[in-house]
Structure formats: C-alpha cells, structure tokens
C-alpha cells in the first residue's frame, strides 16, 4: 500500500518546526516506524514536518561529567557503537543492536523510537529501566525545556504526553557500579519483540521494565520492592514474578501474537533470565 496524501515541510529553524507541530504536523526524524505505518494506513497524518535540517537539533551523544545526553537525531547505530555507552550502559547498546536490520539502525533515531511509544520498543524498555529524563519544548515555552521523567512519558498504545511539544534530547545519569541486562523474545531474528525486559541494578535498588504485556512500556514496581527487600536471587521463582505482574495495574494485550497469559508467562521467564544475567555481571559490549 501507499501512504495517503499529506503535506511535507523541512524547516531549518526550531521555531518553524515547533510552529508546524502546533498546527498539527507530525515530526519525522528517521521515519522507520512512521513511514511504515503510513504505508499500511494505520497512521494517516495530513502533515509531516521533517526535523533533520533543524540546526538546533543535535545528532550527537554527549558525555558530560555526571550525565549522558542523547540528541534528537542520534541513531540506534550511534548508540550501539558509542564507547561510553558500551562501557557504562552495555544493556542499552545491546537493545540498540537488536533493533531491526542495518538500515533501520542506521536511519532510525533513539528519540523517535521512544516517541513512537510502541509497547515493545527496544529503547523505550531499556531507557525506562534507566530512569531517563526527556527534554522537550514548544512554541509556548519561549525556548525553555521541560524535563519529563520517562516513567510519565507513555500514556497508552503508541501515545505519549508530548502534545504540541518536540522532544529535544534524552538524559541518562552516569552511575558507577551499575549493571543491567536487556533480553527480548521474537518470532524470528530482526522482528519486533513479542516481549522484552530490561533489569538494571545498583546497590540494593533494582529497576525492571517490561514491554509487550501492556498497552505501554511498564515498570514492575511491586517486584522491584520485593527485590529491594530480599536482594537479587536466582532462586526467585517464576510464580513470584507472575504474581507481581498480575498485581500490577495495567491493561493487558491480547492479540494475534499471543494471549495475555502467554505473554505474562513469557515475561516472567525473561525477567528470571535477566536477573540471573545481572547476578553474573550483566551485559557486556
């Protein structure tokens, strides 16, 4: 199929891009999710604003003293191959490496993957476990940036909190002695995951993010509290994890890829494996 008719603009200033978004245009960065959805007519925007020529938007991954900042136009390949990410956030590098094929990783952007807000998006799951902060702005903010915790960012299936705002960057805190593991299960290589999990552990604090079992990426806070009390353990049973999943409040997904019960059992198994991986030292580049 082909996309329906739409207007296309490619502004060079942030102000022009923000005005277009305020007028209803949908931002286009890498376009690896949006264009496919338009071809299938599951997304039919009437106006597209290409942000690749906007001078104020960065395609860099900047490593400052306490944080890593990922620009709006930074690609999955850049993230996967960045030495600091490989060294300090190897689970992020792994999540980026397992996205699609070479073309998608070369063109698709990290922020685009998050803003698309698919419940199984690799970067959404991995960054949710990192407590990332999204920086966004709009025409009404006079150049100031709003800091949005990623835990507040997703509002439903492929929907986010931005509205007329544009995501400018995403920020990660650099925390020593942090380990993590990203694991996904898909029908075949390069396919979108049926379920994916990311476990990040530091000291006695564990973050567990899961995709594919709810309408949006979620954190399993009940399970996180349990692990805070008893610590990481390979003896944590799948039944305990299932109970924590079932005790979480979310709208389960039943679709052609599997029932909610199947996906929750799959998630429990993947979480067990990710916890075991963290106990053994976590992912490595």
Helical proportion, percent range: 25-40%
Radius of gyration: 19 Å
Number of strands: 14
How many domain modules?
3
- Count of helix runs: 11
Strand content: 15-25%
Summarize the biggest pleated sheet: 5 strands, antiparallel
What top-tier CATH class of the largest domain fits best? Alpha Beta
The termini sit apart by 39 Å
Average pLDDT: 92
Question: What is the second-level CATH architecture of the largest domain?
Answer: 2-Layer Sandwich
Order of helices and strands: EHEHEEEHHHHHHEEEEEEEEEHHH
Q: Low-confidence spans: pLDDT under 50, at least 5 residues? A: none
Approximate shape: globular
Describe this structure in a few short sentences.
This protein has helices at about 15-20, 35-40, 75-80, 85-90, 90-95, 100-105, 110-115, 120-130, 220-230, 240-245, 260-280, and strands at about 5-10, 25-30, 45-50, 60-65, 65-70, 135, 145-150, 155, 160, 165-175, 180-185, 195-200, 205-210, 220. It has about 280 residues and is α+β, with helices and mostly antiparallel strands.
Features:
4-stranded antiparallel beta sheet, Uridine Diphospho-n-acetylenolpyruvylglucosamine Reductase, domain 3, 285 residues, 14 strands, Enolase-like, domain 1, 5-stranded antiparallel beta sheet, 3 domains, 11 helices, alpha+beta
Notes on the protein architecture:
The protein has 285 residues and is of the alpha+beta class. It has three domains: 7-47, no CATH class; 61-173, Uridine Diphospho-n-acetylenolpyruvylglucosamine Reductase, domain 3 (2-Layer Sandwich), CATH 3.30.465; 179-279, CO dehydrogenase flavoprotein, C-terminal domain (Enolase-like, domain 1, 2-Layer Sandwich). 33% of the residues lie in helices and 23% in strands. The protein contains eleven helices and 14 strands. It has helices at 14-22, 34-39, 76-81, 83-88, 90-97, 102-107, 110-116, 122-128, 221-230, 238-246, 260-279, and strands spanning 7-9, 26-28, 47-50, 61-63, 67-71, 133-137, 146-149, 154-156, 159-160, 166-173, 178-185, 195-202, 205-211, 218-219. The strands form four sheets. The chain has a five-stranded antiparallel β-sheet with strand order 4-5-10-6-7, covered by helices on one side. Helix 5 runs antiparallel to helix 8 (122-128) and helix 10 (238-246) crosses helix 11. The longest helix has 20 residues, at 260-279.
């Amino acid at each position: 199929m082909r996309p329906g008719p739409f207007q296309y603009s490619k502004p060079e200033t942030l102000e022009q891009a923000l005005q277009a978004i305020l007028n209803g245009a949908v931002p286009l960065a890498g376009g690896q999710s949006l264009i496919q959805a338009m071809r299938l007519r599951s997304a039919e925007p009437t106006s597209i604003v290409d942000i690749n020529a906007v001078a104020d938007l960065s395609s860099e991954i900047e490593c400052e003293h306490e944080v890593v900042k990922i620009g709006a136009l930074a690609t999955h390949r850049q993230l996967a191959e960045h030495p600091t990410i490989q060294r300090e956030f190897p689970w992020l590098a792994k999540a980026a490496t397992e996205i699609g094929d070479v073309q998608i990783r070369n063109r698709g952007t990290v922020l685009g993957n998050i803003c698309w807000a698919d419940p199984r998006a690799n970067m959404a799951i991995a960054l949710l476990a990192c407590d990332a902060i999204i920086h966004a702005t709009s025409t009404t903010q006079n150049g100031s940036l709003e800091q949005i915790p990623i835990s507040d960012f997703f509002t439903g299936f492929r929907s986010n909190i931005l509205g007329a705002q544009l995501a400018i960057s995403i920020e990660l805190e650099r925390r020593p002695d942090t380990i993590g593991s990203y694991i996904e299960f898909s029908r075949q290589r390069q396919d979108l995951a049926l379920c994916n999990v990311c476990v990040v552990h530091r000291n006695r604090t564990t973050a567990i993010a899961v995709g594919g079992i709810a309408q949006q990426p979620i954190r399993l806070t009940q399970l996180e509290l349990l692990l805070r009390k008893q610590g990481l353990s390979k003896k944590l049973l799948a039944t305990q994890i299932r109970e924590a999943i079932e005790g979480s409040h979310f709208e389960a997904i039943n679709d052609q890829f599997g029932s909610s019960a199947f996906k929750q059992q799959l998630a429990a198994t993947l979480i067990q494996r990710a916890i075991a991986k963290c106990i053994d030292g976590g992912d490595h580049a």
